[in-house]
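Problem: given the chain below (373 residues), write out its structure.
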Amino acid sequence: MKEKILIITNLYPLPWQPTRSMFNYQQFGYLEERADVYYLIPVAFPDWWKHKKQLNNVDKNIKYVPYIYIPKFGRRFYGKLMQWSLSLLANSWIKNISPAKILASWAYPDAVAAVAIAKKFKTEFYLKVHGSDINMHAVFPERAKQITKMANYAQGILSVSQDLANKMADMGINKNKIHVIYNGVNLEKFIPKPADNESPYIVFIGNLKHDKGVIELLYAFIQIHEQFPNLKLKYIGSGNMTAKLQVIINEYQLHEKVKLEGVKVHNQLPHIIAQATLLALPSYNEGVPNVVLEAMACATPVVVTKVGGIPEVVTKETGIIATEITANAIACCMKEALEKNWDYAAIRTHAESFSWARNTDELANMLTLKREF
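Solution.
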């Protein structure tokens, strides 16, 4: 009989955001082959209220709960507020499931709330951290203290990179509990494909926000586009930098060369990535972004920045790593990548070491799951 695992995380697709956190959706989907998995998804109260009708008739293994908090005020209390919200509205549901293990994905406030629930129900507690959850909150002493205490209670901690594992150890988290497990990629879906007749293009995929370096990327493209007259730049995603990007596109009259294509469903990404000349992701902070692994699986070279776990998965044979997050540095790296004679077979071979099968085996081992025969 499979063990029951309750996953508590805000990082999971929502009915109105079906492409949200596809890395968790994929990873936990593979985990469902080893265990009976249930999902408790805290949703910020304004979003929950706005979309509550869409939360009817969802999968019986998923429960969405409104997370009540005061925006931008008293963030040191967010863990307690989330714990209160989940306990108030999901206590009976959790009791009926009677999970053997709780896995929290996102350190704060999700995991800080989840550890209290695990203690209440006397279940094993595990943690998955992503990068930004540690990088954003560890600089605030009160939040860092809560994260460290919670993590040291966990029986196992999944870190998506060694860089992130080192940061947690520096915080005082027991390094013996940390398992570095790199994200996976669907190697059957993301595959190399012959180029079609479309003009060459660089693609960015992700949230259009400042920390993703989307403005630097556009100014970098402005520096090189005349040297590569057929080259285009495509942004796939949405975010608060969309309007600013459009202003710059208008200013430089780049309507034919730079396209803001909005959000695409995950099944559309393999073709978009495989046909791209390069994938660019000049982020300020990252763990190990799945889109980089997906690009390499498609034999598409990447231009990235030296942050988080990216240098652990990108080699000189698979991409160019910028050491500065400036338009000039990104432009130089893109120019180098566009002029380089890549060994595309080698890029694909490198990506094959990041399979979801391997990832699931390592996660199941951390969770001490018994294999079903």
